[in-house]
Amino acid sequence: MTTVHDVTPDQLRGLEAAGEAALNAALGRLPAHEREAYWASVRRAYNAPYNDAVKKPRAAQARAV
Question: Are 52 and 60 in contact (CB under 8 A)?
Fold first, then answer.
């Protein structure tokens, strides 16, 4: 299995560019608000360990809607 340590920096940059191009192509078919929702969920997921641990209970949120 190839790991990040087995590739050269140039190869890694090429893989990064190919991955970004594939992601942009897939997201390109979505309307702007759906693309923004996708990126918002990614930011939230990657920031999850750092987010405030205090959250509103779901039942309270459901009643408020």
Answer: no
The 3 state secondary structure assigned to 7-54 is CCHHHHHHHHHHHHHHHHHHHCCCCHHHHHHHHHHHHHHHHHHHCCCC
Degrees, nearest 5: CA angle 38-42-46: 175
Summarised one tens digit per residue, pLDDT across range 34-59 is 999 998 888 888 876 665 555 666 66
Cα(7)–Cα(10) distance, integer angstroms: 8
Number of H-type helices and E-type strands within the chain: 3, 0
